[in-house]
Design goal:
alpha+beta, two-stranded antiparallel sheet, 6% strand
Length: 506
């Protein structure tokens, strides 16, 4: 009995001390007199169930609504053990993304260029490294460069149309899978010069690797968790977030592509052509000098990787939800098809970049899709110094994550009345002018706005035009109504896939 007491008492003391420490961590914002979310869990903070029971977008929306009901412009919550600020008021969003960018200029994610080169891409880079890389890469995403890549995307869209022509009657044709095949082939061609042909070979290596990028195993999830919550520990451990198989595949792919291009003087109008010019000259020929050296092979591979990962998933998700909403609202679908036919009719039936830019209703339909279903439901910023919010006594300590909940903002009835209703006319010029500009930020905003936004939108529009010109989409018995999101998905994704009835347009 005495031995049990000797063993039990120290163990009990450790447990009590640990619980006390966890409770102290979860009281972070209260100790700083910053308005904080209620119902804090000792282990999960304010995000219990996130990623297992509900998607992150829904978790943040719940906290957002609590703060909104309390009349707060922002508030503090605990993302597990990470004290985080959640933006609520669009003016505060503007403050973080634009007005005080010199303070909130980083995403705050862990990187290690030597140990984990693919993770050290533009989205994750901080400070001066980000600024130099952004200056180098910005000229690759101008409208002129989009026109240059247009033909490549259009050729893949033609293959998409042929595939649907042969398979539209199949009941097992899953729309999300179809859109991912399209974006895999587009990005594979534009970023690596590959002819993937996922429509004939759905098990291609590139497509498998694309799926693996977003396949979050328990090991990868743990590494990401440590990298976000404990960056100092991650650096000390030299933590690697990227899966080894994914890294080996993309590094070899980039190296072999660069070698062939440079040895055989291969010329293609694609993204890697532009990166090679920056690699060798430090900048594009007609761009201002970035003041830095050219790209290393690791840097080039990292930019190709993030271009592929971001373009593959976000554009396919947007097209997926767009077709879903058009199937639910066939009057909107008919109106859009009329515009497509009218513009193409004025252009001898040919889809060109300029013709695509004339499709105003298509633009509004896509904007409304991005409003309801922003592919990335939130974005981060981190402050480099202590920051006292103007007009308040609240100070955000340096190194704090500030989260912008795009999904919650863009589905707020105060900004978008009847937010569940799909209404492209919300984006008529006069309606847009009447709304706070920072209530709609699907690509972020300010100096760190998504650099590939133009390409992503162009890719989605080309795919949609190619399909809607010839096919009608309707709901069927397998269509998920109302929409439910897969909790474990990084992006917004339907819980059971996307199934629609497809018919040829007469």
């Amino acid at each position: 009995m005495g031995l049990l007491i000797v063993l039990f008492v120290p163990l009990l003391a450790v447990v009590i001390a640990l619980l006390g420490y966890l409770k102290w961590i979860q009281g972070y914002w209260q100790r700083r007199d910053v308005p904080a979310a209620r119902n804090t869990h000792i282990l999960f903070g304010n995000v219990a169930g996130m990623g297992t029971k509900v998607h992150m977008a829904i978790t943040l929306q719940k906290i957002y609504r609590e703060f909104k009901e309390r009349g707060l412009a922002f508030g503090g919550f605990n993302n597990f053990f990470a004290p985080t600020i959640l933006a609520v008021d669009p003016e505060f969003v503007k403050l973080v993304l634009v007005k005080e960018f010199n303070v909130f200029h980083d995403h705050g994610f862990y990187t290690d260029p030597e140990k984990d080169p693919l993770n050290s891409h533009l989205f994750n880079l901080d400070g001066a490294q980000w600024r130099v890389m952004r200056q180098k890469l910005s000229p690759t995403f101008t409208s002129g460069k989009m026109k240059m890549m247009f033909v490549t995307v259009q050729s893949v869209a033609d293959e998409l149309k042929k595939y649907v022509e042969s398979n539209y009657h199949r009941e097992d044709l899953e729309i999300r899978d179809l859109m991912q095949r399209f974006t895999t082939d587009v990005i594979g061609s534009v970023a690596f010069g590959l002819e993937c042909n996922s429509f004939k070979d759905p098990d291609s290596k590139l497509r498998k690797m694309a799926a693996k990028v977003f396949e979050l195993s328990p090991k990868i999830l743990l590494q990401i968790f440590v990298g976000i919550q404990f960056k100092g520990l991650a650096r000390w451990l030299k933590l690697k977030v990227t899966d080894d198989e994914v890294e080996n595949f993309f590094m070899e792919l980039v190296k072999s592509t660069v070698e062939i291009r440079e040895k055989e003087q291969v010329q293609r109008n694609d993204f890697i052509k532009l990166l090679l010019e920056i690699k060798n000259n430090g900048k594009l020929s007609n761009a201002p000098d970035s003041g830095g050296d050219g790209l290393t092979m690791n840097e080039l591979a990292a930019q190709c990787f993030v271009f592929f990962a971001a373009g593959f998933e976000t554009s396919s998700t947007t097209m997926n939800f767009c077709l879903y909403e058009l199937a639910l609202a066939e009057d909107i679908q008919d109106r859009l098809r009329e515009e497509i036919n009218e513009v193409l009719g004025e252009n001898d039936g040919q889809l060109t970049y300029d013709a695509l830019m004339k499709m105003d209703y298509l633009d509004r339909v896509l904007n409304e899709t991005l409003r309801k279903y922003p592919p990335l439901d939130n974005t981060f910023r981190m402050n480099s110094t202590d920051y006292t919010v103007p007009g308040t006594n609240y100070t955000i300590p340096a190194g704090t994550f500030v989260q912008i909940p795009m999904f919650a903002l863009q589905n707020d009835p105060d900004h978008f009345p009847d937010p569940d209703r799909f209404d492209p006319d919300r984006f008529l010029p006069e309606v847009v002018k009447s709304r706070h500009p920072y209530a709609y930020v699907p690509f972020g905003e300010g100096p760190r706005i998504c650099i590939g936004m133009r390409f992503g939108v162009m890719q989605a529009k080309i795919g949609l035009v190619s399909l809607l010109q010839s096919f009608r989409f309707r709901v069927n018995s397998r269509t998920l109504i109302p929409m439910e999101f897969e909790p474990a998905s990084v992006t917004l994704s339907p819980k059971i896939g996307m199934y629609l009835q497809i018919e040829r347009v007469k």
